[in-house]
Amino acid sequence: MTPEELLFLKYRGKRILLDSNLLLLFMVGSFQRNRISTFKRTAQFSESQFDVLVQLMAQFNTVVTTPHVLTEVGNLANSLPENIKPFWCEHSASQTAKLLELLEPAVDIMQETSFNPFGLTDAALHKASADTLLVTEDIRLSGFLRASGVAVLNLRDVVA
User: Fold this and answer.
1) Are 159 and 52 in contact (CB under 8 A)?
2) Taking the chain, what is the end-to-end CA distance rounded to the nearest angstrom?
3) Which residues of 119-135 are buried (b: 16+ CB within 10 A; e: fewer)?
4) 26, 54, 28: which is closest to 40 by C-alpha?
5) pLDDT at 97
6) Alpha carbons 23 and 25: distance in angstroms, whole number
7) Which of 26, 66, 131, 138 is the most buried (most CB within 10 A)?
8) Which residues lie below 8 Å from residue 47, measured CB to CB, with a gap of 6+?
9) pLDDT value at position 4?
10) Tell me, what's the pLDDT at 72?
11) Among 26, 17, 19, which residue's Cα sits nearest to residue 55?
12) Could you give the CA distance from residue 153 to residue 7 in angstroms, rounded to a whole number?
């Protein structure tokens, strides 16, 4: 069994936490699948990566997030075409209602060792990762978090 498979089995059925880019991929793909490849903020992903992410998420009882991740997702999605924004906002709100949002004061998050090299959003991921499988596609962040003892799975290791 690969290290990724062992990590997945250890956390399966528990909590999963997605970084901003992956939560955006999920939101956009579940909104309009064909927009994954045409939206500049998700164009680096494929529909098959979206499918793997959805299958992965289905194996967990709870999808967790932070206000910082949600803010970043909202800012990235702000460049969607104006004519679909009302529909996007409705979809985004309904998907967000299904997430467990963990609230931590920014001043506490800024005490994390990850704050200086990665900033507030990724430090919030670090802080929220206790008893949770963190999934990212950021190689630099995943390497740092693994070295810090965080259970992190890089989507690039799961999808070729």
Assistant:
1) yes
2) 17
3) ebbbbbbbbbbeebbbb
4) 28
5) 98
6) 5
7) 66
8) 29, 33, 36, 37
9) 84
10) 97
11) 26
12) 8
Contact 4, 153 (CB under 8 A): yes
d(CA 144, CA 87): 37
Q: Which residue is it, tokens 């950021």?
A: 138
Strands (E), 82-130: 100-101
Residues 68-73: contacts with CB within 8 Å, 24+ apart? 68/106, 68/109, 68/120, 68/121, 68/124, 69/18, 69/19, 69/20, 69/23, 69/121, 69/124, 69/125, 70/23, 70/96, 70/101, 71/121, 72/20, 72/121, 73/20, 73/23, 73/24, 73/27
pTM of the model as a whole: 0.95
What structural domains and CATH numbers belong to the chain? Answer: 3-158 (3.40.50.1010)
Cβ-contact 19, 25 below 8 angstroms: no
* Side chain identity at residue 68, one-letter code: H
